[in-house]
Amino acid sequence: MTNTVDQLVKQVEQWSIDKDLHKADPTRQALKVWEESGEVGAALSRNKLDDLKDGIGDTVVTLIILAQQHGWSLQECLQYAYDEIKDRRGETRNGTFIKESDLR
């Protein structure tokens, strides 16, 4: 059976509590975010799709815990980011979106 995103987030948050990560130093957790993000880059550069999937998942896990350490939910952070970008203007160049203020 496949879990929903909400179920998975709750499971990660509980895992974090079980491991006492929810009260740990957020700076250390940020380092884990960067470590896992680096694995995403390595997987892309080597075209290893299984490693890419794992790296994306691991990065999301670290972000869930980092948000939790600040008393936020992943949904709250995602909503905050979406509210910032939803009306953003700009253009896509070489597969990268560049916001209008950076085009000048």
From TrEMBL:
A Pfam family assignment: MazG
Domain of life: Bacteria
Domain NTP pyrophosphohydrolase MazG-like, residue spans: 32-88
InterPro entries to which the protein is assigned, alphabetical: MazG-like_dom (IPR004518)
Protein name as annotated: MazG-like family protein
